[in-house]
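Collaborator request, handled under Task 6.
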Amino acid sequence: MDKKPFPRRTGAHPATGRDPARSRPTQDSRNTPPARDHRPRGPALPPLAAGTLGEALLVASDGLAAVLKGYALNDGLLGLWQAYPDLLPATRGAVQDLLYGTLRDCGRGSFILAKLLSKPLEEPRIEALLLLALYRLETRPDTAHTVVDQAVEAAARLAEGRLKALVNGVLRNALRQWAALLAAADADPAAHWRHAAWWIKAVQRQHPEHWQALLAANNTHPPMSLRVNPRRSSADACRAELTEAAITFTELAPLALRLDTPRPVASLPGFAEGRVSVQDWGAQQAAALLDLAAGQRVLDACAAPGGKTAHLLESADIALLALDVEDKRSQRVRDNLARLGLSAEVRTADCRHLDEWWNGQPFERILADVPCSASGVARRHPDIKWLRREEDIAGFATVQAEILEALWQVLAPGGKMLYLTCSVFEEENGRQVARFAARHKDCRRARLPDGTFERHWLPTAQHDGFYFALLEKSA
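C-alpha cells returned to the collaborator:
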C-alpha cells in the first residue's frame, strides 16, 4: 500500500534521539532522494563480490541512511535501485529484506546500538550498517561470524575505511554481551515493543484490551490477499489457476482470497492480464460499505494508487471521478485501471480546493480515503515507526477535517460518504467523525451492514488496520 504520505522530518525521535530533516505533514508530501554515485572515496578497493551478504549490507546501508535522514522507505528504495541498477535479483531481495526487517525492529536495534557506543556516530551510513548487522545477528545467530566479517568488508568501503575497526569492535563486543543486551532490550518498552514510547502509550490508552496484540501485529510480515476482477474472470477460474500453479490460499469471500504464503506479484496467474489484484482484506471492505448502485455518480477523493477505485468500478456500473493530488500518483491510478480494463475520469487536484476540479454537479456517493498516520499499516511501511511523531496526529486530523468539510459540499442530498482511514488512533477516527457530525445538522451516521455505526478493524494476521464510518446527508 502506497496510500499515505511519509514526509521528511526533523526533531529528535522519542525512541532514538535522532533528528532527521523535517517538513510538515501534508496530503502530497513526497521526497525522493536522488540517485547518487556511491563508489568509495579514498584508496581504491575492489568491489564486493556480487551476491554476497557484504554487498547487500553495503547497498542496504545506503537505503537505511536515507530513512535516518527522513526519507520514506518507498522513496528511498526508488533512489536505491536507480543508484545500483546492476544488482542481481537475489541481492535486491536480500537488500529489501534487510531494510524492512531492520526498520520493523528499529526501536530494538537503536537501543542495543546505543548501549555499544560511547557517543553518537557522525557517519549515517556506518550507523545504518551497524543497525542492519545487529538485526541480522539477532535473526540469524547461526551466521554470526559471516555477518561480522561481511559488515567489516562493507565498512572498508564507507567513510574512506576510517571506521572499519570501529564496526569490527562494536559487532564483536555485541556478540560478547549478546545475552545481556537482549535482556536489557526486553526490559525497555520501546525496544521490546519496537515502537516509540508515545505510540505505545496511545494504544494502551485507546485500546486497553488489545494494545499488546496491536503492537505485536505491527512487527509481523503482512498477509497478502487477492481480489478477483469479475469483469475479466470468476472466483472458480481464479481458484483453479492458483491451484494449478501450486499456490495455496484461504477463501475470505466469493471474490477474495488470502495466500498462505506471500509471493512476488509478477508470479501471480492472471495479474498482468487484469484478472486479479492484490488488495488487503480490510481495504476490500470499502466498496461494499459505500452501498453502490448502477448509474450513480461517484467520487473517489484521494484515489492513488487506485486499488479501491478499481474495486468500486468492478462492483457496479457507475460514473466515477478519481482525484489525487500529484500527477505521478494520478498516473498510477490510470495504469491500474488500464490493467484491469476499467474506465473512469482521473484528474490531478487537491480535493479540498473545489474551484480546481468541481463542475457543480453533486455526487451520490463519495469515498473519502483520507491521508492519515498509516498506523494501521505500519508493518507494510515500517519506516513510519521511525519517522512518525506524536504531533503528526493533530496535523493529519486537521487535513482530514478540511477534506470532510470540502467533500460535504459536493455530496448530493440523500447521498452517502464513506470516511476511511488506515489509522488506529481515535483522533483520526471516531473523534474526527463525531466532531464532524456535531458541526453538521444535515449529517446522519448511517448503520453499516452489521448494524453498527462504525467499524474499526485493528491489524491481525488476516488484515491490516482500518476505520470506516458511513455518513448520510439529509434529503
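The cover message to the collaborator said: "The radius of gyration is 23 Å. Residues 1-31, 37-42 have pLDDT under 50 and may be disordered. Please let us know whether this matches your experimental observations."
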